[in-house]
């Protein structure tokens, strides 16, 4: 059994290096608490936040607008959103976005006139690249004396005593550490890397979902995964800025047909419908010959540069796993069923229901990141000491001894399996096959002695996350939002409810 080294205590430990984690850490530090950020990869330079398009959409601070906005979110979520989370999002978004504007971290805001007064409703960097927001924010964090950053450290397990959080088990270079914490915030992002075709980075292996499950927390809506229909896969990999489709770009199949012609909005049709139509084509190509080049240069110059670089070659496109609507079940104050354990950002579930609106994932990190920071700081302030300040070696008895093997092959089989059998179009037979395969891989990983412990734990997390996704997909015998079952193609009112995995 591996030894665990104690490395001290903190008021608030935040897991993750994306926007949700950074907002939570910054806010907790404002309450004079000692904060430690634990991130597998560099803070502000990892996860989905840094590669995002930086687009934030939010309701203007206007009563009538907020009401109609709420309805839009719930309609997109096909009526199974957590209403408390929606209310909190709509109520707080505008004010929390004002706070971000004051930080001067590269966001440009747009306003519109409502009842004779200007109201903000949109923010993005120019050009629309997440790094212009995440890097300045991480630089602010680095100036804070009461925030310590542990980069390259991976949270492995939330340590709990009598339903109360008391710290985190952490891995670094095949060693295990215990950090005691009065409060813990999970902000580990999503799990798109579970799919072979994805827009997500390779650190998004669903660790937060798996850690939450191991901690006994319920997870909600795990079947709802948004597949993004705007990504090139060959000869270069790049996100496509959807607005180019209103400026002359189009998708063609291998026969040269514009297969979205039958829909009024064509390539700008609802993302689920477009992804499904793409799934049924043999090959899909992005055609930008007739696209307004000045618009491209202005709005997506890097895509334009690639277009010039590979001129003459056909640009292949595929839908990709992009965003997980489901996740850890939280309350509106980001608290969970474990005292002192909070959760925010993409790893939390419930706000978006069965599908999310564009630009809401980043606003979600702003709203709930701030709330998690504030609530965790208050909670830590109410505790004089943590329940335990060391852990027994048995805590990590599920972690294997070090050997010489690599789980890369298992990871890749799993990712292909998820794409082929639990992807855009699902059915009972494929899902059962996917489940059998994942169980087979679970047996294989149990007996593997890894050269790198991190690879093994990530693989284990991917398996746990995949199992939750598949089980939820099998249970939901209807199509709703981003979940499409070819054997149950209609939405069924009896299924207007959530699936919760324990
Ligand atoms: C290409 C792309 C473009 C997008 N564009 C937009 C957009 O314009 N607007 C919008 O609203 N949404 C967009 N999204 C979605 C949005 O970016 C994400 O939902 C959001 O950034 C998630 O933020 P987060 O902080 O929760 O997680 P992330 O930014 O994904 O960060 C997770 C962090 O946790 C770390 N981590 C993971 N596991 C562990 C562990 N076990 N221990 C320690 N650290 C860990 C990771 O290394 C990473 O630092 C986009 C997504 C993608 C992939």
From TrEMBL:
GO BP, sorted A to Z: NAD+ biosynthetic process
UniProt GO molecular function: L-aspartate oxidase activity; steroid dehydrogenase activity, acting on the CH-CH group of donors
E.C. number(s) listed in UniProt: 1.4.3.16
One Pfam family hit: Succ_DH_flav_C
Assigned keywords, A-Z: Coiled coil, FAD, Flavoprotein, Oxidoreductase, Pyridine nucleotide biosynthesis
The reaction(s) this protein catalyses: L-aspartate + O2 = iminosuccinate + H2O2
Coiled coil regions in record: 424-451
Family: Belongs to the FAD-dependent oxidoreductase 2 family. NadB subfamily.
Protein name: L-aspartate oxidase
């Amino acid at each position: 059994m591996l030894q665990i080294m104690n490395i001290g205590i903190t008021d608030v430990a935040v897991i993750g290096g994306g926007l949700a984690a950074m907002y939570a850490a910054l806010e907790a530090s404002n309450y004079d608490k000692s904060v430690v950020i634990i991130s597998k990869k560099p803070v502000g330079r990892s996860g989905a936040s840094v590669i995002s398009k930086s687009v934030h959409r939010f309701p203007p601070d206007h009563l009538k607008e907020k009401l109609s906005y709420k309805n839009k979110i719930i309609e997109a979520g096909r009526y199974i959103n957590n209403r408390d989370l929606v209310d909190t999002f709509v109520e707080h978004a505008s004010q929390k976005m004002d706070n971000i504007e004051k930080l001067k971290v590269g966001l440009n805001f747009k306003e519109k006139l409502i009842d004779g007064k200007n109201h903000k409703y949109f923010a993005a960097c120019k050009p629309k690249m997440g790094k212009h927001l995440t890097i300045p924010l991480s630089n602010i964090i680095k100036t804070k004396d009461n925030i310590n950053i542990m980069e390259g450290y991976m949270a492995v397990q939330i340590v709990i005593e009598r339903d109360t959080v008391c710290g985190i088990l952490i891995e670094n270079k095949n060693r295990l550490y215990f950090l005691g914490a009065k409060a813990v915030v999970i902000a580990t992002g999503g799990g798109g890397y579970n799919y072979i075709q994805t827009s997500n980075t390779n650190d998004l292996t669903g660790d937060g979902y798996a850690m939450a499950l191991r901690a006994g927390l319920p997870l909600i809506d795990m079947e709802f995964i948004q597949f993004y229909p705007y990504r090139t896969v060959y000869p270069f990999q790049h996100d496509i800025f959807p607005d180019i489709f209103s400026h002359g770009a189009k998708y063609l199949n291998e026969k040269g047909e514009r297969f979205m012609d039958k829909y009024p909005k064509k390539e700008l049709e609802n993302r689920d419908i477009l992804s499904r139509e793409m799934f049924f084509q043999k090959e899909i190509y992005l055609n930008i010959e007739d696209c307004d080049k000045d618009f491209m240069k202005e709005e997506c110059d890097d895509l334009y540069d690639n277009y010039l670089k590979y001129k003459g070659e056909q640009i292949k496109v595929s839908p990709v796993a992009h965003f997980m609507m489901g996740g850890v079940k939280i309350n509106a104050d980001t608290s969970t069923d474990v005292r002192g354990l909070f959760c925010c950002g993409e790893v939390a579930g419930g706000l978006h229901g069965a599908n999310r609106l564009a630009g809401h994932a980043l606003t979600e990190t702003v709203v709930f990141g701030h709330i998690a920071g504030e609530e965790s700081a208050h909670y830590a302030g109410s505790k004089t000491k943590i329940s335990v300040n060391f852990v027994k070696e048995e805590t990590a008895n599920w972690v294997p001894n070090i050997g010489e093997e690599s789980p890369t092959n298992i990871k890749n089989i799993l990712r292909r399996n998820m794409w082929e059998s639990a992807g855009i179009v699902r059915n009972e037979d494929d899902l059962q096959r996917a489940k059998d395969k994942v169980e087979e891989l679970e047996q294989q990983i149990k007996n593997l002695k890894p050269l790198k412990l991190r690879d093994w734990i990530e693989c284990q997390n991917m398996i746990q996350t995949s199992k939750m996704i598949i089980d939820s997909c099998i249970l939901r015998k209807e199509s709703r939002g981003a979940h499409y079952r070819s054997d149950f193609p209609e939405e069924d009112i009896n299924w207007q409810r959530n699936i919760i995995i324990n």
